[in-house]
Amino acid sequence: MSKEVRVRFAPSPTGYLHVGGARTMLFNWLYARKTGGKLVLRIEDTDRNRNTDEALRAVLDGLRWLGLHWDEGPEVGGDRGPYFQSQRNDIYKKYLNKLEKAGRIYEDDRSLRFKTTRSIVQVEDLICGRIAFDMSNPATHPDITIRRPDGGWIFHFVNVVDDIEMGITHVIRGEDHLSNTPKHVDLYHALGVEPPKFAHIPLILNEDGSKMSKRDKGAAVSWYQAQGYVPEAVVNYLCLLGWSPKDNREILPIEEVIALFDLDKINRRSARFDLDKCFWINGQYIAQMTPERFSELAIPFLRKAGIDAEDSPYLRGVLAIVKEKIKLLSDIPSWASYFFTDSPEFDPEAVAKSLQTVGAGARLERLEASLKNLSNWTAESIEAALKTLAAEYAEKPALYVHPARVAVSGRAVGPSLYHMLEVMGRERVLQRLASARIDFCTT
Ligand code: GLU
Question: Does the domain spanning 290-340 belong to CATH 1.10.8?
Answer without folding.
Answer: yes
